[in-house]
Amino acid sequence: MSELFDINKSDLSIDDIVKQMQKLNISKRYPIYADGARPEAIEQIKRAGYNIKQATKNVLDGINTVKEYDLKVLEGHTNIIRELETFDTHPLSHPRA
Length: 97
Hints:
Number of strands: 4
Number of domains: 1
Largest sheet: 2 strands, parallel
Number of helices: 4
Helix content: 25-40%
Distance between the termini: 35 Å
Order of helices and strands: EHEHEHEH
Radius of gyration: 14 Å
Structural class: alpha/beta
Strand order of the largest sheet: 1-4
């Protein structure tokens, strides 16, 4: 079973993100797709042994990739829930009138 984690806190340093990933026991085997806005962050996480890659910016490709995973949203991560609800193709979407 695949899992998707959201570690998306702007106040975390890259070292803090790596520590959080270790604390959450995130596998180093499975791919992690990251925003390419900070390539140095991707490189640092890669050096920590994680299989991290720059995500494509194609929205439909991204939605389809996310749909391949069994999503688990950590408590308190309301931003990702709000974002998922904006996609008509996601099961969390609200029916439109």
